[in-house]
Specification:
The chain is built from twelve helices and 13 strands. By secondary structure, the chain is an alpha+beta fold. Strands 4-3-2-6-5-1-11-12 form an eight-stranded mixed beta sheet. Strands 7-8-9-10-13 form a five-stranded mixed beta sheet, with helices on one face. Bound molecules: N-hydroxy-L-asparagine.
């Protein structure tokens, strides 16, 4: 869509429009009635992670919960050394340390999150353990790592030779400017609907390549990188986390779906919300995927180049997402 059309549409999607009394009415009956419970399992994940999505779908087809399936799917990318934005082999911070962020949210509305964790690859599973085995929602840094060790997770160096090489090349031309463009990100966000029609999700990342030490993005922040409301649907984000956090993107999408916007419309409005304050075409990328209780899905990104895998009706396929800017 071109700039002019966007501005024309802006009034339709204005802040005033969104903050209607309905926005705060969390139990709107008509939305709930309209959402009539999709019966067969669905798994949708960011990017072309068909292996991750296929593992999640096997768990779903075997009758496992949406949460377990989402975490198992995410773990495939966490162990994929070729993926430099998640888990083992993730790009380090500017000082050469790989630090990971992840969160999960289940159909009860419970959630768990870990931030800036070093030496542990399966951080989505760790976030699930925080949710299930501690009285807390979020553990950070050393505390998260110590908790992982106490739960039997393996401690290992997550910096692979190839990510080390890339980091050293970066150091040579070091000019700190964190931009997520279409080439530089592969965070996994995954949403599953199980055989009981329960929705859960997981999100896992090593964050921005060569970020400042201690930098945390949207991915482990409930409401930003991931949000699920089992009555309505779920959403996950990938891309420039700072922009997602500023607009609480995943929560926004679920709240829009609660107001009867389709997942596609909700993703588009959330992307436009980010763009509202950009005077020019931004260099950074943000993308969302969403699913509602009817099994309808949505995906939208700022720039072209984003895609997602969808498992539905026993088929796992990759789809290109629509984007705000396109040629
Ligand atoms: C972050 N949203 O840390 C993550 C990065 C990302 O694909 O999605 N990369 O900001």
């Amino acid at each position: 869509m071109k700039r002019r059309k966007f501005i024309k549409n802006a009034s339709k999607f204005s802040l005033a429009g969104l903050i209607s009394p309905d926005f705060f009415n969390v139990d709107k009956k008509y939305s709930i009635k309209k959402l009539n419970n999709y019966k067969s399992p669905i798994s949708i994940c960011t990017w072309d992670f068909s292996n991750a999505n296929s593992v999640a779908s096997e768990y779903l087809e075997n009758g496992q919960s949406a949460l377990e399936s989402a975490v198992r799917g995410a773990s495939i990318e966490e162990s994929n050394a070729q993926n430099s934005t998640v888990g083992y082999g993730g790009a380090p911070d500017r000082e050469g340390n790989v630090s990971l962020d992840a969160c999960v949210m289940n159909h009860f509305g419970d959630c768990g999150s870990v931030v800036a964790v070093k030496n542990i690859r399966s951080v989505a599973s760790l976030a699930k353990d925080v949710m299930e085995k501690t009285p807390h929602v979020m553990l950070a840094g050393d505390g998260a790592e110590e908790f992982a060790i106490s739960q039997g997770y393996k401690s290992e160096d997550l910096l692979t030779n190839s990510s080390k090489k890339e980091w050293m090349k970066w150091l040579e031309r070091s000019n700190y400017k964190p931009i997520i463009n279409i080439e530089n990100h592969d965070t996994i966000g995954i949403l599953c609907i199980d055989q009981k029609n329960n929705i859960s999700g997981a999100c896992s990342t090593s964050g921005l390549a060569y970020k400042m030490k201690g930098r945390v993005g949207d991915s482990p922040i409930i409401g930003s990188g991931l949000f699920v409301d089992n009555k309505i649907g779920g959403a996950v984000a990938t891309g420039m986390g700072e922009e997602v956090v500023k607009t609480v993107g995943s929560f926004l999408i679920v709240e829009l779906m609660r107001q009867n916007y389709s997942p596609q419309e909700a993703c588009e409005i959330a992307i436009r919300r980010i763009l509202e304050k950009e005077k020019n075409k931004p260099e950074f990328q943000v993308a969302y995927i969403a699913v509602n209780k009817n099994g309808e899905i949505g995906a939208f990104s700022i720039h072209e180049g984003f895609g997602y895998c969808l498992y539905r009706n026993k088929k796992n396929r990759f789809y290109k997402s629509k984007s705000f800017y396109y040629k």
